[in-house]
Design brief:
about 725 residues, alpha+beta, two-stranded antiparallel ribbon, 25 helices, elongated
């Protein structure tokens, strides 16, 4: 039966969540690899897990949310990706501080530089992602709403822990174990090109007063330490190589190379990089990748326009489910049994047929005192004060309603021996074929009670069923409601796309009957229990997911405007985030999927994952000290390219383990997660970078800083005058 099926499904789902442990181990291993430290990897994964108790405290006691279901456990895959991304951003900022300031600068100066860069980058992405989930909290579907609140708290506390615990762990590692790094042992591609303590050194260790920068190819004198710490880009006397990363000759230069040279030789340079070299992946993004995207910037921009239009077209074709949603594959025994029973033993008449109830006397539900987080607490009924069956004309009209509904071919009433359960017909027969007017409701209720308790000669009480089935709502001396029930040929398991026309037909038919009804029985409405409410839930899921995506994009735009103070960057970044969302939804449509529970829930999470990478690059572009778009884009890729790539690897890696699950929901969720990250990489490192190289703001174009400074001056002046 259904209870056993739910029990088996719960057991299978619980086993599937075991794959979260494998995902955690993968993320832990990659953090160790990227940071080059088992200590940082251990502290990092512990920091990610520590966000759960903090989030639970605020979720349960501050937000007063008591609902927690299996859906919320999916947040482990969400926070593993976001938490690892934050760790990578901070670690990479720390390593790049050594490049900009020199490896021998004081730790306080280096941490201050890295902290300012990383904390701001993480703040913007954490804010936009958490706000995207807080928007989900507006969903009328309670499990989705609570998941949004839970995920938002997780992201907030992950950010707080990353800017408090991780810097301390980074300093501990740097002071005690940096020369025991995995980089020194395995030469990972994320390793900085620095010498270990046991390697021979030709140069004496520099003092703080006479710092030098060491590269694999040259030794370049730096400024004094005091002056070099005042700028993020110490000046070098050597000419910086072009993004091509190779020596250029005067002859055989293409137009693209000449444009690169013009940018490289530009007088806007506020200082070259120090002699300490970047890590290999940073050099890859700084040189080869920047140059490749630069050469392909116009084709990529054109491809972005075409892709965006096609993705919007395909995404707009997504529709609610047209068939029942399948949760377990047919390879599982219980699913095999259900399919076999359905094929070999067709359902008997009525066992899978929709029963529609036409209700009189109930206006709705009062949920003001109901517990929103308890699915069983649906509130209390609100009775219709205008409902009355005291008059014979009202009683007689109910007979007319039963007759017209049974005769309406559009309502698909079954042709069985008992297609309806209309107490009013039996009551008329009990009254010898005629109704009477009652002087009071107490008199009416007394007569209805006698009718329900009427005993036949054989001792049976045939009309008692109307009270037992809840079709006569008698309480004390009051008749609160009555229900007329009809059996249809419509299946109870129809999805929303097929059930909704049935709902509309019934609603239209009852509205027409209400329009002609006398005053006591003119406010009826049809209901069909779970099949109809589930259809409404499916439709609400679709509408709320689409609306949530739109609101989240608006929130992302506002956050980007505030963080970058550049309307051009904020607009380009939001456009690319929208492109990621549309491409992911288009892929869902091309997979042949429809908007079911999995897709609707994933649409909420898509925005959260789509924001991070583009926002990282956009903020890094604005923070660049250069003025020309090529140099600013190159700086953005140098600073954030490695973090974006590492974050995508951990998120994809953690999601891939869900393919080992049995429940189809988890496999579809894994596919959507991987597709989202794939499109995020393409749009951030490819399309967004190309757009920056084509129309990225130069100098102060698009900047809101002058306006902000003007307002600050006005406020300062007004405040000064007020004090005077």
């Amino acid at each position: 039966g259904e209870s056993y099926a739910n029990y088996v499904f719960g057991i299978i789902a619980l086993k599937d969540f075991g794959w979260a442990l494998a995902s955690m181990m993968f993320v832990y291993a990659y953090i160790c690899f990227h940071t080059g430290s088992v200590y940082l990897g251990s502290m990092g994964i512990a920091q990610i897990l520590l966000a759960f108790p903090f989030a639970w405290f605020f979720y349960r006691f501050l937000a007063q949310v008591r609902y927690f279901a299996s859906l919320h456990i999916l947040s482990i895959f969400l926070i593993l990706g976001i938490g690892a991304d934050d760790i990578f951003v901070f670690t990479d900022a720390w390593q790049q501080a050594g490049v900009v300031l020199g490896e021998d600068c004081p730790l306080t100066v280096r941490m201050s530089w890295a902290y300012r860069r990383a904390a701001k980058a993480m703040l913007v992405t954490s804010f936009t992602t958490s706000m995207a989930f807080f928007v989900t909290a507006l969903s009328p579907i309670m499990p989705i709403s609570t998941f949004g609140v839970w995920a938002a708290f997780l992201i907030i506390f992950q950010y707080v822990l990353c800017i408090t615990l991780y810097p301390a762990n980074l300093i501990v590692w740097h002071r005690h174990w940096r020369f025991k790094s995995l980089w020194v042992k395995c030469g990972a591609c994320t390793a900085p090109d620095v010498l270990g303590p046991d390697e021979p050194v030709e140069e004496p260790e520099p003092s703080e007063e006479e710092a030098i920068a060491v590269t694999p190819a040259k030794v370049v004198p730096q400024q004094t330490m005091e002056s070099s710490y005042e700028t993020e880009s110490p000046i070098s006397t050597t000419k910086e190589p072009s993004p091509l990363g190779a020596e250029e000759t005067p002859e055989a230069k293409s137009d693209e190379e000449e444009e690169i040279d013009r940018d490289s030789d530009s007088s806007d340079d506020e200082g070259e990089d120090s002699g300490v070299d970047y890590r290999r992946m940073e050099r890859f993004f700084r040189g080869f990748w920047t140059n490749t995207v630069f050469r392909m910037r116009y084709p990529l921009t054109l491809a972005a326009i075409i892709l965006f239009c096609l993705a919007c077209w395909q995404a707009s074709n997504l529709a609610p489910l047209s068939e029942d949603e399948v949760w377990i594959p047919e390879t599982i025994d219980i699913r095999k049994g259900a399919v076999w029973l359905g094929d070999e033993f067709p359902v008997t008449e009525g066992s899978n047929q929709l029963q529609v109830d036409v209700t009189y006397g109930v206006e709705g539900l009062d949920r003001s005192d109901a517990d929103r987080y308890n699915p069983e607490d649906i509130g209390s009924p609100v009775f219709d004060s205008s409902f009355s069956l005291q008059r014979a004309v009202d009683q007689d009209y109910l007979v007319t309603v039963c007759e017209k509904i049974l005769a309406d071919g559009k309502l698909n009433i079954t042709d069985s021996a008992a297609p309806a359960s209309c107490f009013i017909n039996d009551f008329k027969q009990y009254k010898n074929g005629s109704f009477v007017d009652y002087s009071s409701e107490r008199e009416l209720v007394a007569d209805l009670t006698s009718f329900a308790n009427f005993e036949l000669a054989d001792g049976s009480v045939p009309y008692r069923r109307y009270i037992d089935l809840g079709q006569l709502g008698i309480q004390g001396d009051d008749l609160h409601f009555v229900v007329l029930s009809f059996k249809t040929t419509t299946r109870t398991t129809l999805p929303y796309s097929k059930m909704n026309p049935v709902v509309l037909e019934w609603t239209d038919a009852i509205d027409k009957l209400n329009a002609k009804a006398p005053g006591g029985v003119n406010a009826a409405y049809p209901t069909a229990g779970y099949p109809w409410s589930w259809g409404v839930t499916q439709n609400t899921l679709v509408r709320s997911s689409i609306g949530g995506v739109a609101i989240a994009l608006g929130v992302a735009l506002a956050a980007l405007v505030v963080s970058t103070l550049n309307i051009v960057i904020a607009s380009l970044a939001t456009l690319c985030i929208g492109g990621i969302v549309c491409c992911t939804l288009a892929a869902v449509h091309l997979f042949g999927w429809e908007l079911g529970i999995t897709e609707s829930i994933a649409a909420v999470i898509i925005v959260g994952f789509s924001v991070d990478y583009v926002v990282h690059l956009g903020n890094a572009y604005v923070e660049s000290k250069h003025k020309r778009r090529l140099r600013r884009t190159r700086d953005a890729l140098t600073d954030m390219g490695i973090s974006v790539l590492a974050g995508s690897i951990t998120t994809i890696g953690s999601g891939i383990f869900l393919y080992g699950a049995v429940v189809i929901f988890f496999k579809k969720f894994a596919t959507i997660l991987v597709v989202t990250i794939g499109w995020s990489l393409f749009w951030s490192l490819g399309i967004f970078t190309a757009l920056l190289l084509v129309i990225g703001p130069e100098n102060q174009r698009g900047s809101l800083s002058p306006m902000v400074n003007w307002f600050k001056k006005r406020l300062f002046c007004c405040g000064t005058r007020a004090l005077e």
